[in-house]
Amino acid sequence: QVQLVESGGGLVQAGDSLRLSCAASGGTESKYYIGWFRQTPGKERQSLAVIAWNGGTYYDVAVKGRFTVSRDNRKNTVDLQMSSLEPEDTAVYYCAADTSWSQAISGSCDYWGQGTQVTVSS
After folding, report:
1. In Å, how far from its chain's centre is CA 31?
2. Is 2 helix (H, G, I), strand (E, B) or coil?
3. What are the pLDDT tens digits along the chain (122 aa)?
4. What is the 3-state secondary structure (H, E, C) of the chain?
5. What was the pLDDT predicted at 53?
6. I want to staple 78 with a disulfide (CB 3.0 to 4.6 A). Which of 2, 21, 34, 99 is the partner?
7. How many angstroms from the chain centroid is the CA of residue 2?
8. What pLDDT does residue 29 have?
9. Cβ 58 vs Cβ 50: under 8 Å
10. Nearest to residue 9, comparing CAs of 99, 85, 100, 111?
11. How far apart are CA 98 and CA 52, in angstroms?
12. CA-to-CA distance for 69 and 108, rounded, in angstroms?
């Protein structure tokens, strides 16, 4: 199984950019689709972006154009570059992995990181 650790969260101001990183270990990481998700209290978890081992990507319409997901298969990391952040982007951000593309997009992943808090002040 794969272990995932997120980093890079923090407090930023509206309009700022922030880069999150997800480090994967413990398995054949290249076979996994890895995605980024976020959740705020009282709301459903939202799928943001998913990337395949070959670089294929999926983006939720809410973040397409502002967020960019990238993957370094040598380092076993998946980054999420976020720009033009808004207070509404405040959430706990998670990375997760699954061997199914559809499962990864829907957020029904087998493996999850512990999450990293992103707070955007107005």
Report:
1. 17
2. coil
3. 899 999 999 999 999 999 999 999 987 666 899 999 999 999 999 999 999 988 999 999 999 999 999 999 889 999 999 999 999 999 999 999 999 999 999 999 999 999 999 999 99
4. CCEEEEECCEEEECCCCEEEEEEEECCCHHHCEEEEEEECCCCCCEEEEEECCCCCEEECCCCECCEEEEEECCCCEEEEEECCCCHHHCEEEEEEEECCHHHHHHCCCCEECCCEEEEEEC
5. 87
6. 34
7. 16
8. 63
9. yes
10. 85
11. 10
12. 19
Q: Which of 35, 50, 30, 7 is nearest to 111 (CA)?
A: 35
Q: How distant is the alpha carbon of residue 110 from its chain centre?
A: 15
What is the bridge-based pairing of β-strands 91-98 and 67-72?
Answer: unpaired
Distance in angstroms (rounded) separating the CA atoms of residues 71 and 79: 6
77 neighbors 66 (Cβ within 8 angstroms): no
> Which two three-digit tokens encode residue 62?
């809410």
